[in-house]
Design brief:
The chain is α+β, with helices and mostly antiparallel strands. It has one domain. It is 39% helix and 13% strand. The chain has three helices and three strands. Strands 1-2-3 form a three-stranded antiparallel β-sheet, covered by helices on one side.
């Protein structure tokens, strides 16, 4: 079989494409793994939105919400952000005491290095625990104290 320049070029092109795909999979991972990490990123984003809604509810009401729905109704969190982006299953909110709660979700893979420590997770069902600070009431004026303007400086004549 005689090699022509066309068949040589074709063989080199095919080898380069195969090598590029192999390097791409090695660096980035297979498409299924990339998709799993993307969905896990969305899950974390949804959990962070829910945490913000619960915090906002607690600030306004002075207590943790009894249900996730109660927190969402008083916030600007989109209802879709309370569900798993892949399965549509609701994210889990569980009030564990008057000042603590858990948020849980099911992850496809372990978190990557770039994820903040408090949001790191392994594969499977993971829960994140939160503790709120009791609402601080602003100091009340009254109680017999009435603010008075400072006295004007005395003017002396010479």
């Amino acid at each position: 079989m005689k090699l022509t320049s066309t068949s040589t070029f074709t063989a080199i092109a095919v080898a380069l494409v195969v090598a590029s795909l192999a390097v791409g999979f090695y660096l980035v991972g297979p498409p299924g793994e990339v998709r799993a990490h993307r969905l896990d990123g969305e899950r974390l984003s949804h959990l962070q939105s829910v945490e913000s809604a619960v915090d906002s509810y607690q600030t306004q009401q002075g207590a943790l919400p009894a249900t996730l729905q109660a927190a969402v109704e008083q916030s600007n969190v989109v209802t879709g952000q309370t569900r798993d982006p892949e399965t549509g299953a609701p994210l889990e909110y569980r009030r564990t005491s008057s000042t603590t709660y858990d948020l849980c979700a099911r992850f496809a893979a372990a978190s990557s290095e770039g994820v903040a420590m408090r949001w790191r997770h392994g594969p499977g069902r993971q829960c994140f625990s939160f503790q709120i600070k009791p609402r601080q009431t602003p100091p009340q004026l009254g109680y017999g104290f009435v603010p008075q303007p400072a006295p004007a400086p005395a003017i002396r004549s010479r």
